[in-house]
Amino acid sequence: MSPDTHDLIPVTVLTGFLGSGKTTLLNQLVHQPAMKDALVVINEFGDIGLDHRLVAEGDEHSVVEMSSGCLCCTIRGDLSRTVQKTFDAIERAGGEPFSRVIIETTGLADPSPILHTLMTDYWLAHRLYLDGVICLVDAASGVSTLNAHRESQRQAAVADRLLITKADLVDEARLSRLAGHLARINPAAEQVQVSHGEIAAERLTGEGLSVQRQRADHWLSAASYAQVSPTVGMTPPSAGSLVSMLTPQSGPVLSRHGEQIRSFCFTVEEPIAPDVLEDWLDLLMSLLGEKILRVKAIVKIAGREQPLALHGVQHIFHPPEPLPVEACSDGISRFVFITNGVAPEAVAQLFDYFQPGRAAENHLSSFNAQGVSR
Ligand SMILES: Nc1nc2c(ncn2[C@@H]2O[C@H](COP(=O)(O)OP(=O)(O)OP(=O)(O)O)[C@@H](O)[C@H]2O)c(=O)[nH]1
Fold first, then answer.
1. What CATH number corresponds to the domain at position 253?
2. Are residues 206 and 219 both part of a single domain?
3. What is the CB < 6 Å shell around ligand 1?
4. Please, are residues 255 and 149 in contact by the beta-carbon 8 Å criterion?
5. Ligand 1 atom with minimal separation from the 165 CA
6. In ligand 1, which atom is closest to the CA atom of 51?
7. One domain, residues 196 and 224
8. Pocket of ligand 1, candidates 13, 14, 18, 23: which has the most ligand atoms within 8 Å of its Cβ, to mutate?
9. Which residue's alpha carbon is nearest to atom 13 within ligand 1?
10. Which of 104, 123, 240, 328 could form a disulfide with 42 if both were Cys (CB 3.0 to 4.6 A apart)?
11. What pTM, to 2 d.p., does this model score?
12. Could you read off the pLDDT of 201-228 as tens digits, one per residue?
C-alpha cells in the first residue's frame, strides 16, 4: 500500500544553474517562520563544501551538507541515508519532527534523477512527497546559459515555479527576452522576479498535488501547453515514420548540445479504459522514458467516478491518486508531457495503437524490427 500523501512531509527541490542565487535565497528563507522545523539539505559539488558556511544558521532548522559528489550522479543513495540519519537524530534527541525538507541541488545537476530518487527510494517515498521544484534563473546570464547547458534547460523545464534573480543587473528588453525563452521551455511555470533572495517562503511552497487537490487544474496548468489529441480515424503511420517521430529532429532547437525541450498537453475526450491507459503508458515509458522529463495528468477512467491524478518522472510513476469528481468535470483526460525531443504525434500515435480495432501487434512488431529497443 502506498502511504496517503496527507501523512507525508513536503519536500521542495531548489535548483538553478551555477551562481543563479540559490544560496542567497536559502539564506533568506531559513529565517522565515514558515521554515521553522525545516530540514535543508545542501549539496556542494567539489572537494571543499563551502556552501554550508554561506547558509546562515538559524535556531529552528537543520542544515546538512552532502559533499561527497553530485546529488544527481553519484550519491543518490546518500540522499536517503542523510535524510534518514537526520530524522533519526532529531527523534532520538526528542526534537520537533521536521515539517518540511528543502533539497538544494548543485548548479550542474539535472534535477530529474533526484525527483526519481524521491519517488523510488523506499524510505524517502514513504515519508516525503514532492511539493514542488523551484528553479532560479540568473537574468544576466540566463539566455546564454540555457542555450549552452542542457542541465540548465532541464532545471527550467521540470520546475513548478521559475525565480528570476539579478533583474537589477539587466534592462527590460533583456528581461523580456529571458521570459519568452523560459515560456517556450516551460509554459506553465509562473515566473517571479526575486531580488537578492527576498521572497516569502509561502510563495515557494504548496505547489504539490496534495495541497492543490481542490485546484487540480491549477496543478496541471494544461491550458498553458500546445494541445494534442489522439489521431484515431487517420491512417496509422508506417513503422518507419514512427521511428522518425521518436527521433528528435524537428521542433525548437534550444541548445547547442542537442537538447530539444518540448512540452505539450495530450487530451483524450472519451473516458479511457484502465488496460488501455496501463498498456499505453507502459509502452511509452519503455520506449521513451529517458526522454520524458516529467508527466502530470488528470485522467477520467472508464467506469470510475473519481478521476485520477498521475505524476511521473522519466519512466517512474507515483501511485495514481483519486481526485474529487469536480477535478475533471468535463470528463476530458489531460496529460502534460515535458520531454526532451519527443514529438507530440508519437505520443498520440502510440495511444492509437491501443484503441479497439487497431492491429497493434503488427505495427509494434514491425516498429521494433526497426531497431528501437523497448
Ligand atoms: N545583483 C544581484 N546579485 C545577486 C542577486 N541574487 C544573488 N546575487 C549574487 O550572485 C552571486 C551568486 O549567488 P549564490 O547565492 O552564491 O548562487 P548559487 O546559485 O548558490 O551558486 P552556486 O553555489 O555556485 O551554484 C552572489 O554574489 C550573490 O550575492 C540579485 O538578485 N542581484
1. 3.30.1220.10
2. no
3. 16, 18-24, 51, 107, 165-166, 168-169, 195-197
4. yes
5. 31
6. 23
7. no
8. 23
9. 21
10. 104
11. 0.76
12. 888 887 655 545 556 777 777 777 878 7
